[in-house]
Design goal:
- By secondary structure, this protein is of the alpha+beta class.
- The protein folds into two domains: 269 residues, Hypothetical protein af1432 (Orthogonal Bundle); 152 residues, Growth Hormone, Chain: A (Up-down Bundle).
- The chain contains 22 helices and nine strands.
- A hairpin with a 5-residue loop joins strand 7 and strand 8.
- Helix 3 packs antiparallel against helix 4, helix 4 runs parallel beside helix 9 and helix 13 runs antiparallel to helix 17.
Protein backbone atom coordinates (compact mmCIF):
# COMPACT_ATOMS: atom_id res chain seq x y z
CA UNK A 1 0.00 0.00 0.00
CA UNK A 2 1.32 3.45 -0.94
CA UNK A 3 2.09 5.92 1.84
CA UNK A 4 -0.70 8.31 0.79
CA UNK A 5 -3.27 5.51 1.14
CA UNK A 6 -2.06 4.24 4.52
CA UNK A 7 -4.61 4.33 7.33
CA UNK A 8 -4.08 3.98 11.06
CA UNK A 9 -5.28 0.75 12.64
CA UNK A 10 -7.96 2.75 14.42
CA UNK A 11 -9.22 6.30 14.39
CA UNK A 12 -7.15 8.55 16.65
CA UNK A 13 -8.99 11.37 18.39
CA UNK A 14 -8.11 14.67 20.00
CA UNK A 15 -10.63 15.78 22.59
CA UNK A 16 -11.70 19.25 21.57
CA UNK A 17 -13.91 21.79 23.41
CA UNK A 18 -15.35 23.16 20.16
CA UNK A 19 -15.84 20.11 17.93
CA UNK A 20 -15.92 17.50 20.74
CA UNK A 21 -13.50 15.28 18.79
CA UNK A 22 -10.91 15.82 16.06
CA UNK A 23 -10.61 12.53 14.21
CA UNK A 24 -7.53 11.30 12.36
CA UNK A 25 -7.32 8.12 10.29
CA UNK A 26 -4.81 9.05 7.56
CA UNK A 27 -1.22 8.13 8.39
CA UNK A 28 0.02 11.23 6.57
CA UNK A 29 -2.04 13.56 8.78
CA UNK A 30 -0.95 11.73 11.93
CA UNK A 31 2.70 12.05 10.92
CA UNK A 32 2.36 15.75 10.07
CA UNK A 33 0.91 16.50 13.50
CA UNK A 34 3.97 14.88 15.11
CA UNK A 35 6.50 17.07 13.26
CA UNK A 36 8.51 19.70 15.18
CA UNK A 37 7.20 22.41 12.87
CA UNK A 38 3.58 21.60 13.70
CA UNK A 39 4.24 21.00 17.41
CA UNK A 40 5.80 24.47 17.51
CA UNK A 41 2.30 25.89 17.05
CA UNK A 42 1.56 24.86 20.64
CA UNK A 43 3.90 27.70 21.63
CA UNK A 44 2.17 30.36 19.50
CA UNK A 45 -1.02 31.82 20.95
CA UNK A 46 -3.97 32.05 18.59
CA UNK A 47 -5.00 35.47 19.89
CA UNK A 48 -1.64 37.10 20.57
CA UNK A 49 -1.99 39.59 23.43
CA UNK A 50 -5.72 38.99 24.02
CA UNK A 51 -4.92 36.92 27.12
CA UNK A 52 -4.17 40.23 28.85
CA UNK A 53 -7.81 41.21 28.25
CA UNK A 54 -9.61 37.85 28.35
CA UNK A 55 -7.75 35.66 30.81
CA UNK A 56 -8.97 32.44 29.21
CA UNK A 57 -7.53 33.26 25.79
CA UNK A 58 -4.47 31.04 26.18
CA UNK A 59 -5.31 28.70 23.29
CA UNK A 60 -2.78 28.11 20.53
CA UNK A 61 -2.42 27.96 16.77
CA UNK A 62 -2.11 24.20 17.31
CA UNK A 63 -5.70 24.00 18.61
CA UNK A 64 -7.01 26.10 15.77
CA UNK A 65 -5.15 24.20 13.04
CA UNK A 66 -6.59 20.90 14.24
CA UNK A 67 -10.03 22.50 14.27
CA UNK A 68 -9.76 23.71 10.68
CA UNK A 69 -8.62 20.26 9.62
CA UNK A 70 -11.63 18.70 11.37
CA UNK A 71 -14.13 21.01 9.70
CA UNK A 72 -12.65 20.35 6.25
CA UNK A 73 -12.68 16.60 6.97
CA UNK A 74 -16.37 16.80 7.81
CA UNK A 75 -17.20 18.90 4.74
CA UNK A 76 -15.43 16.42 2.47
CA UNK A 77 -17.37 13.56 4.04
CA UNK A 78 -20.62 15.44 3.39
CA UNK A 79 -19.60 16.06 -0.20
CA UNK A 80 -18.94 12.35 -0.59
CA UNK A 81 -22.49 11.68 0.65
CA UNK A 82 -23.73 14.17 -1.97
CA UNK A 83 -21.78 12.32 -4.68
CA UNK A 84 -19.48 15.27 -5.31
CA UNK A 85 -16.51 13.96 -7.29
CA UNK A 86 -13.39 14.52 -5.18
CA UNK A 87 -10.65 11.97 -5.80
CA UNK A 88 -8.44 10.63 -3.03
CA UNK A 89 -5.44 12.74 -4.02
CA UNK A 90 -7.48 15.95 -3.88
CA UNK A 91 -9.01 14.87 -0.60
CA UNK A 92 -5.57 14.41 0.99
CA UNK A 93 -4.31 17.71 -0.45
CA UNK A 94 -7.32 19.45 1.10
CA UNK A 95 -6.78 17.90 4.52
CA UNK A 96 -3.07 18.69 4.55
CA UNK A 97 -3.66 22.28 3.47
CA UNK A 98 -6.28 22.73 6.19
CA UNK A 99 -3.95 21.33 8.84
CA UNK A 100 -0.91 23.34 7.73
CA UNK A 101 -2.49 26.64 6.67
CA UNK A 102 -1.15 28.57 9.71
CA UNK A 103 2.20 26.80 9.95
CA UNK A 104 4.26 29.93 9.31
CA UNK A 105 2.85 32.11 12.08
CA UNK A 106 5.53 33.60 14.31
CA UNK A 107 5.38 34.60 17.97
CA UNK A 108 2.71 37.24 18.65
CA UNK A 109 2.17 36.90 14.93
CA UNK A 110 0.90 40.21 13.58
CA UNK A 111 2.85 42.45 15.96
CA UNK A 112 6.08 40.61 15.14
CA UNK A 113 5.39 40.82 11.41
CA UNK A 114 4.69 44.55 11.57
CA UNK A 115 8.06 45.45 13.12
CA UNK A 116 10.21 43.18 10.97
CA UNK A 117 8.16 43.47 7.76
CA UNK A 118 7.50 39.75 7.53
CA UNK A 119 4.64 37.70 6.12
CA UNK A 120 3.65 34.47 7.86
CA UNK A 121 2.27 33.13 4.58
CA UNK A 122 5.75 33.30 3.06
CA UNK A 123 7.09 31.24 5.95
CA UNK A 124 4.23 28.75 5.63
CA UNK A 125 5.31 28.14 2.06
CA UNK A 126 8.97 27.89 3.07
CA UNK A 127 8.19 25.30 5.74
CA UNK A 128 6.14 23.21 3.33
CA UNK A 129 8.71 23.40 0.52
CA UNK A 130 11.97 23.69 2.48
CA UNK A 131 14.26 21.34 4.38
CA UNK A 132 11.80 20.40 7.12
CA UNK A 133 10.16 17.31 8.57
CA UNK A 134 6.87 18.53 7.13
CA UNK A 135 8.37 18.58 3.66
CA UNK A 136 9.88 15.10 4.16
CA UNK A 137 6.44 13.68 4.93
CA UNK A 138 4.66 15.47 2.09
CA UNK A 139 7.35 14.41 -0.38
CA UNK A 140 6.84 10.78 0.66
CA UNK A 141 3.32 11.09 -0.75
CA UNK A 142 4.60 12.34 -4.12
CA UNK A 143 7.44 14.60 -5.31
CA UNK A 144 5.01 17.36 -6.32
CA UNK A 145 2.72 16.95 -3.32
CA UNK A 146 4.29 19.73 -1.17
CA UNK A 147 3.85 22.21 -4.01
CA UNK A 148 0.20 21.21 -4.45
CA UNK A 149 -0.50 21.73 -0.75
CA UNK A 150 1.28 25.09 -0.79
CA UNK A 151 -0.76 26.20 -3.80
CA UNK A 152 -4.01 25.55 -1.96
CA UNK A 153 -2.84 27.77 0.90
CA UNK A 154 -1.62 30.58 -1.37
CA UNK A 155 -4.81 30.30 -3.45
CA UNK A 156 -3.26 29.29 -6.77
CA UNK A 157 -4.49 25.69 -6.82
CA UNK A 158 -6.50 24.88 -9.94
CA UNK A 159 -9.41 23.32 -8.02
CA UNK A 160 -11.22 26.40 -6.72
CA UNK A 161 -13.56 24.35 -4.55
CA UNK A 162 -10.59 23.12 -2.50
CA UNK A 163 -9.28 26.68 -2.12
CA UNK A 164 -12.70 27.88 -0.98
CA UNK A 165 -12.69 25.38 1.88
CA UNK A 166 -9.98 27.33 3.70
CA UNK A 167 -10.01 30.72 1.90
CA UNK A 168 -13.40 32.32 1.35
CA UNK A 169 -15.94 34.44 3.19
CA UNK A 170 -17.42 31.31 4.71
CA UNK A 171 -14.54 28.89 5.12
CA UNK A 172 -13.31 26.34 7.65
CA UNK A 173 -10.68 28.76 8.95
CA UNK A 174 -13.21 31.41 9.97
CA UNK A 175 -15.76 28.90 11.20
CA UNK A 176 -13.21 27.44 13.59
CA UNK A 177 -11.56 30.58 14.92
CA UNK A 178 -14.84 32.39 15.58
CA UNK A 179 -16.17 29.57 17.72
CA UNK A 180 -12.84 28.72 19.32
CA UNK A 181 -12.01 32.30 20.19
CA UNK A 182 -15.51 32.85 21.59
CA UNK A 183 -15.15 29.73 23.75
CA UNK A 184 -11.78 30.68 25.21
CA UNK A 185 -12.57 34.37 25.71
CA UNK A 186 -15.88 33.49 27.36
CA UNK A 187 -18.02 35.69 25.10
CA UNK A 188 -21.21 34.70 23.32
CA UNK A 189 -20.72 36.72 20.14
CA UNK A 190 -18.83 34.15 18.05
CA UNK A 191 -21.28 31.30 18.36
CA UNK A 192 -23.38 30.36 15.35
CA UNK A 193 -25.05 27.23 13.99
CA UNK A 194 -22.14 25.58 12.21
CA UNK A 195 -23.95 22.25 12.01
CA UNK A 196 -26.68 23.91 9.98
CA UNK A 197 -24.17 25.62 7.69
CA UNK A 198 -22.34 22.35 7.03
CA UNK A 199 -25.65 20.68 6.31
CA UNK A 200 -26.64 23.24 3.65
CA UNK A 201 -23.23 23.60 1.98
CA UNK A 202 -23.19 22.53 -1.65
CA UNK A 203 -20.54 22.19 -4.36
CA UNK A 204 -21.86 23.61 -7.64
CA UNK A 205 -19.64 23.85 -10.72
CA UNK A 206 -16.51 23.94 -8.60
CA UNK A 207 -17.84 26.64 -6.30
CA UNK A 208 -18.88 26.49 -2.64
CA UNK A 209 -22.48 27.69 -2.26
CA UNK A 210 -25.21 27.60 0.38
CA UNK A 211 -28.67 26.13 -0.05
CA UNK A 212 -31.12 29.02 0.26
CA UNK A 213 -32.90 27.44 3.24
CA UNK A 214 -29.71 27.95 5.23
CA UNK A 215 -29.57 31.72 4.68
CA UNK A 216 -30.43 32.60 8.28
CA UNK A 217 -27.59 30.46 9.63
CA UNK A 218 -25.20 32.34 7.34
CA UNK A 219 -26.62 35.69 8.49
CA UNK A 220 -25.90 34.63 12.07
CA UNK A 221 -22.37 33.62 11.09
CA UNK A 222 -21.64 36.97 9.45
CA UNK A 223 -23.01 38.95 12.38
CA UNK A 224 -20.98 36.76 14.76
CA UNK A 225 -17.85 37.63 12.83
CA UNK A 226 -18.69 41.35 12.91
CA UNK A 227 -19.26 41.29 16.67
CA UNK A 228 -16.13 39.25 17.40
CA UNK A 229 -13.94 41.73 15.56
CA UNK A 230 -15.21 44.75 17.47
CA UNK A 231 -15.75 43.13 20.86
CA UNK A 232 -12.72 40.79 20.96
CA UNK A 233 -10.12 41.21 18.19
CA UNK A 234 -10.18 45.02 18.28
CA UNK A 235 -10.71 45.33 22.02
CA UNK A 236 -8.87 48.53 23.06
CA UNK A 237 -7.11 46.83 25.99
CA UNK A 238 -5.77 44.15 23.67
CA UNK A 239 -4.69 46.83 21.24
CA UNK A 240 -2.90 48.65 24.07
CA UNK A 241 -0.90 45.51 24.82
CA UNK A 242 -0.08 45.14 21.12
CA UNK A 243 1.10 48.74 20.96
CA UNK A 244 3.49 48.12 23.86
CA UNK A 245 4.68 44.83 22.36
CA UNK A 246 5.40 46.47 19.01
CA UNK A 247 7.26 49.28 20.75
CA UNK A 248 9.39 46.82 22.73
CA UNK A 249 10.51 45.16 19.52
CA UNK A 250 11.03 48.51 17.84
CA UNK A 251 13.08 49.82 20.78
CA UNK A 252 15.28 46.72 20.83
CA UNK A 253 15.82 47.07 17.10
CA UNK A 254 16.70 50.76 17.48
CA UNK A 255 19.12 50.08 20.35
CA UNK A 256 20.79 47.26 18.43
CA UNK A 257 21.34 49.54 15.44
CA UNK A 258 22.76 52.23 17.76
CA UNK A 259 25.33 49.79 19.17
CA UNK A 260 23.81 49.68 22.66
CA UNK A 261 25.36 47.08 24.98
CA UNK A 262 22.58 44.86 26.33
CA UNK A 263 22.83 43.09 29.67
CA UNK A 264 20.95 40.27 27.95
CA UNK A 265 21.85 40.38 24.27
CA UNK A 266 18.97 39.81 21.82
CA UNK A 267 20.69 36.80 20.28
CA UNK A 268 17.51 35.23 18.89
CA UNK A 269 16.56 38.51 17.19
CA UNK A 270 19.84 39.41 15.49
CA UNK A 271 18.98 37.80 12.15
CA UNK A 272 15.74 39.81 12.08
CA UNK A 273 17.62 43.05 12.74
CA UNK A 274 20.03 42.39 9.89
CA UNK A 275 17.46 41.02 7.40
CA UNK A 276 19.39 37.75 7.15
CA UNK A 277 16.62 35.51 8.40
CA UNK A 278 16.76 31.85 7.55
CA UNK A 279 13.97 29.37 8.13
CA UNK A 280 15.58 27.51 11.03
CA UNK A 281 16.19 30.72 12.96
CA UNK A 282 12.57 31.69 12.40
CA UNK A 283 11.33 28.34 13.68
CA UNK A 284 13.50 28.55 16.80
CA UNK A 285 11.84 31.76 17.99
CA UNK A 286 8.56 31.24 19.83
CA UNK A 287 6.57 33.12 22.46
CA UNK A 288 8.26 31.39 25.39
CA UNK A 289 11.63 32.71 24.23
CA UNK A 290 10.26 36.19 23.60
CA UNK A 291 8.74 36.34 27.08
CA UNK A 292 12.07 35.28 28.56
CA UNK A 293 13.74 38.28 26.92
CA UNK A 294 10.96 40.62 28.02
CA UNK A 295 11.34 39.37 31.58
CA UNK A 296 15.10 40.00 31.51
CA UNK A 297 14.92 43.33 29.70
CA UNK A 298 12.95 44.81 32.58
CA UNK A 299 16.37 45.29 34.19
CA UNK A 300 18.16 46.92 31.26
CA UNK A 301 19.86 50.27 31.75
CA UNK A 302 17.83 51.76 28.91
CA UNK A 303 14.83 53.28 30.67
CA UNK A 304 12.45 53.03 27.71
CA UNK A 305 13.11 49.34 27.08
CA UNK A 306 12.94 48.41 30.75
CA UNK A 307 9.74 50.38 31.25
CA UNK A 308 7.99 48.94 28.20
CA UNK A 309 8.93 45.38 29.21
CA UNK A 310 7.74 46.00 32.76
CA UNK A 311 4.45 47.32 31.39
CA UNK A 312 3.94 44.27 29.20
CA UNK A 313 4.97 41.64 31.73
CA UNK A 314 3.02 43.21 34.60
CA UNK A 315 0.06 44.50 32.60
CA UNK A 316 0.64 48.21 33.15
CA UNK A 317 -0.93 49.10 29.86
CA UNK A 318 -1.41 52.41 28.10
CA UNK A 319 -4.69 54.25 28.40
CA UNK A 320 -6.49 55.56 25.36
CA UNK A 321 -8.93 58.15 24.08
CA UNK A 322 -10.99 58.20 20.91
CA UNK A 323 -9.01 59.98 18.24
CA UNK A 324 -10.64 62.51 15.95
CA UNK A 325 -8.98 62.23 12.55
CA UNK A 326 -10.26 65.68 11.57
CA UNK A 327 -7.97 67.26 14.16
CA UNK A 328 -5.13 64.77 13.60
CA UNK A 329 -2.32 67.06 12.50
CA UNK A 330 -3.00 69.89 14.92
CA UNK A 331 -3.69 67.73 17.97
CA UNK A 332 -1.06 65.08 17.43
CA UNK A 333 1.74 67.45 16.52
CA UNK A 334 1.04 69.58 19.58
CA UNK A 335 1.03 66.53 21.84
CA UNK A 336 4.32 65.37 20.34
CA UNK A 337 5.91 68.67 21.27
CA UNK A 338 4.41 68.63 24.77
CA UNK A 339 5.62 65.06 25.36
CA UNK A 340 9.11 66.10 24.33
CA UNK A 341 8.90 69.07 26.70
CA UNK A 342 8.32 66.70 29.65
CA UNK A 343 10.92 64.13 28.47
CA UNK A 344 8.49 61.42 27.39
CA UNK A 345 9.51 60.04 24.00
CA UNK A 346 6.41 60.24 21.74
CA UNK A 347 7.84 57.62 19.38
CA UNK A 348 7.19 54.96 22.01
CA UNK A 349 4.60 56.62 24.25
CA UNK A 350 2.15 58.43 21.97
CA UNK A 351 0.65 56.04 19.46
CA UNK A 352 -2.26 56.35 17.04
CA UNK A 353 -3.80 52.92 16.45
CA UNK A 354 -6.23 52.12 13.64
CA UNK A 355 -8.76 49.28 13.63
CA UNK A 356 -10.68 48.53 10.45
CA UNK A 357 -12.92 45.72 9.27
CA UNK A 358 -15.22 44.95 6.35
CA UNK A 359 -17.77 42.41 7.67
CA UNK A 360 -18.97 41.27 4.24
CA UNK A 361 -17.44 42.20 0.89
CA UNK A 362 -20.12 42.06 -1.76
CA UNK A 363 -17.86 43.56 -4.41
CA UNK A 364 -15.12 40.93 -4.39
CA UNK A 365 -11.89 42.88 -3.93
CA UNK A 366 -8.88 42.17 -6.09
CA UNK A 367 -6.22 41.91 -3.36
CA UNK A 368 -7.45 38.63 -1.96
CA UNK A 369 -9.59 37.03 -4.65
CA UNK A 370 -11.04 34.07 -2.78
CA UNK A 371 -11.44 35.62 0.66
CA UNK A 372 -13.53 38.45 -0.78
CA UNK A 373 -15.68 36.46 -3.19
CA UNK A 374 -19.37 36.93 -2.37
CA UNK A 375 -21.39 34.13 -0.81
CA UNK A 376 -23.97 32.63 -3.15
CA UNK A 377 -27.26 31.01 -2.28
CA UNK A 378 -28.63 28.15 -4.34
CA UNK A 379 -32.28 28.93 -4.89
CA UNK A 380 -35.06 26.30 -5.26
CA UNK A 381 -34.88 26.67 -9.07
CA UNK A 382 -31.11 25.91 -8.83
CA UNK A 383 -30.13 29.45 -9.81
CA UNK A 384 -27.45 31.23 -7.76
CA UNK A 385 -28.21 34.47 -5.95
CA UNK A 386 -25.66 36.62 -4.13
CA UNK A 387 -26.38 36.64 -0.40
CA UNK A 388 -26.89 40.37 0.17
CA UNK A 389 -29.41 40.50 -2.69
CA UNK A 390 -31.63 38.11 -0.77
CA UNK A 391 -30.85 38.99 2.87
CA UNK A 392 -31.82 42.46 4.19
CA UNK A 393 -29.56 41.92 7.20
CA UNK A 394 -26.47 41.25 5.11
CA UNK A 395 -27.41 43.97 2.64
CA UNK A 396 -27.36 46.50 5.50
CA UNK A 397 -23.67 45.85 6.25
CA UNK A 398 -22.38 44.85 2.81
CA UNK A 399 -19.40 46.83 1.58
CA UNK A 400 -19.46 49.07 4.66
CA UNK A 401 -16.00 49.32 6.21
CA UNK A 402 -15.90 50.48 9.80
CA UNK A 403 -12.70 52.22 10.89
CA UNK A 404 -11.82 53.31 14.40
CA UNK A 405 -8.87 55.38 15.67
CA UNK A 406 -7.55 55.55 19.21
CA UNK A 407 -4.68 57.45 20.78
CA UNK A 408 -2.62 55.49 23.32
CA UNK A 409 -0.44 57.04 26.03
CA UNK A 410 0.99 56.29 29.54
CA UNK A 411 -1.54 57.97 31.82
CA UNK A 412 0.39 56.98 34.96
CA UNK A 413 3.53 58.78 33.77
CA UNK A 414 1.52 61.85 32.85
CA UNK A 415 -0.14 61.93 36.26
CA UNK A 416 3.28 61.83 37.95
CA UNK A 417 4.47 64.96 36.12
CA UNK A 418 4.87 68.19 38.08
CA UNK A 419 1.86 70.46 37.82
CA UNK A 420 2.99 72.92 35.20
CA UNK A 421 1.72 74.41 31.94
CA UNK A 422 2.86 71.40 29.88
CA UNK A 423 0.96 68.93 32.03
CA UNK A 424 -2.18 71.06 32.11
CA UNK A 425 -2.19 71.45 28.33
CA UNK A 426 -1.63 67.72 27.78
CA UNK A 427 -4.60 66.84 29.99
CA UNK A 428 -6.72 69.56 28.40
CA UNK A 429 -6.08 68.13 24.93
CA UNK A 430 -6.65 64.53 25.98
CA UNK A 431 -9.84 65.48 27.75
CA UNK A 432 -10.98 67.24 24.58
CA UNK A 433 -10.32 64.07 22.59
CA UNK A 434 -12.56 62.15 24.98
Amino acid sequence: MSYKAQQLDEVKVFKDPVHRYVRVRDQVIWDLIATPEFQRLRRIKQLGTSYLTFHGAEHSRFNHSLGVYEIVRRILNKFADQNVAIDQDTRLISLCAALLHDLGHGPFSHSFEKVFHLDHEDFTRQIILGHTKVNDILTRVAPNFPEQVARVIDQTFENTLVVHLISSQIDADRMDYLQRDAYYTGVSYGHFDMERILRVMRAVDGELVIKSTGMHAVEDYIMSRYQMYWQVYFHPVTRSAEVILINILQRVKDLYEQGYTFKVAPTHFESFFTDKINLQQYLHLDEAIMLYYFQQWQFEDDHILSDLCDRFMNRRLFKYVEYDRVDEERVYNRLVQLFKNVNIDPKYYLIVDKSSDLPYDVYGGLDDLYETMPIYLRMPDHSLKELSAHSPIVEAISGKRRTDYKLYFPLDDLEDLPDDANKREIFTILAYQM
